[in-house]
Amino acid sequence: MGLSRPVGIVGTGSCVPERVLTNQDLEKMVDTSDEWITTRTGIKERRIADEETATSDLACGAAWRALESARIGADELDLIIVATVTPDMLFPATSCLVQARLGAARAAAFDLSAGCSGFVYALATGAGFIASGQYETVLVIGAETLSKITNWKDRSTCVLFGDAAGAAVLRPVPDGYGILSVVLGADGTGGEKLTLPGGGSRRPFRFERAETDEGSQYIHMCGPDVFKFAVRVVPQAAEEALVKAGLTAGDVQLLIPHQANIRIIDAAAERLGIAPDRVMVNVDRYGNTSAASIALALDEAVRAGRLRRDGVGVLVGFGAGLTWAAAALRWY
Ligand code: UT7
After folding, report:
1. Is residue 1 situated within a structural domain?
2. 243 pLDDT higher than 80
3. Phi and psi angles of residue 254, each rounded to the nearest 5 degrees, phi first
């Protein structure tokens, strides 16, 4: 059950800030330990953007590399979609900032907000535009600077997140290749489990309310509830994507899950019956980079030769919304 016109990823790229923040560094900032962070999450270090670096800067870095690997120019792009929960500002869209910087004069541009599922949502959306015949070449980017919305005094969240961007160029591909199936889902009733409550129309920032609003500018998460949700939906969504594509777990060359927590990744892989050597993991080096995470892991996997021509990859994510998303693809 593929797309009416096959669409695949023809180039990938990623970009992370230089600065590394280790668990040992965090031990000096909050009451935590390398041992707790490693055993509960699998994270050893993460990258943190400096004051001057915004999400669009990382997005552009990833975009250039994706265009280079696809061997196309920015002038060939018809559409740019940026998935993010940390846009440079509320508007204009970060995708428009990227469009300007790339010089992608012909491209339409919009942002998409689906939390950590954002990259797979963007991939599905971009592929739909090509499958329908409207566009030929779409750039999808997952990019975040979560460090900017992290409360560095809250040990239950500040150890988890990092900054990064990943990008993919989509184009028509020969029959049998590319995105074979897509599964998207949402359960808005669980939305309050993972939020950034302030700065929107419900609770706009007001200088005179700064004291009472303290904290509303940061990520709030009920970790254990999100954990249970993830352990349920990740294998379900991946399985559904495989079934839709007429495949089984045995066909999978590489599972590329959202990198939030090694325990969630291990539990999902075990439930699916996919051995660890067929699972992409880089959460130890980057932490949870939300919408960037799957795109970054995909780029690393492709460059390391772990997802190769004819190989089946399964991308699967979950996050704020609450949302989930999976895609099965045959690498072109
Ligand atoms: O991208 C999607 C977004 N989010 C996620 O994927 C997150 C999903 N959730 C998780 O990954 C896990 O729930 C966490 C890693 C966030 C937390 O792990 P947990 O095993 O669920 O721990 P917990 O929140 O139940 O906390 C256990 C204990 C608590 O102490 P008490 O109440 O048992 O005394 C916490 O206060 O660990 C304590 N704790 C910490 N201790 C040291 C919480 N954070 C820390 C910390 N260092 N950083």
Report:
1. no
2. yes
3. -150, 125
The ligand 1 atom nearest the CA atom of 116: 1
pLDDT at 1: 44
Please state, in angstroms and as integers, the Cα–Cα distance from residue 221 to each residue in 84, 143, 154, 212, following that order.
Answer: 17, 20, 11, 19
Start-to-end CA distance of the chain, whole Å, equals 18
Residues 78 and 171 in one domain: yes
Domain count, the chain: 2
Q: Check: CB of residue 158 under 8 Å from CB of residue 73.
A: no
Q: Output the residue whose Cα is nearest ligand 1's atom 22.
A: 224
What are 327's strand-pairing partners?
182, 315
229: domain CATH number is: 3.40.47.10
Half-sphere exposure at residue 18, Cβ-oriented, CA atoms within 13 angstroms: 3
Which residue bears the tokens 């390398």?
Answer: 34
Compute the Cα dihedral for 57, 62, 68, 73 and give only its sign: negative
Q: Looking at the annotation, which residues are catalytic?
A: 116, 258, 288
CA–CA separation, 156 and 161 (whole Å):
11
**Residue range(s) defining the domain that contains residue 262:** 179-330
Pick from 256, 272, 228, 229: nearest CA to 327: 256
What does pTM read for this prediction? 0.97
Mutation probe of ligand 1 site: the residue of 33, 44, 156 with most atoms within 8 A of C-beta: 156
Is it the case that residue 237 has pLDDT exceeding 90? yes
Residue type (1 letter), 179 = I
Q: Which of 156, 176, 196 is the last residue of a domain?
A: 176
Last residue of a domain, one of 176, 191, 223: 176
CA–CA dist 188, 50 (Å, integer):
33
For the Cβ of 195 lying below 6 angstroms from any atom of ligand 1, the answer is: no
Q: Is residue 2 part of a domain?
A: no
Q: Give the model confidence (pLDDT) of 120-158 as tens digits.
A: 999 999 999 999 999 999 999 999 999 999 999 999 999
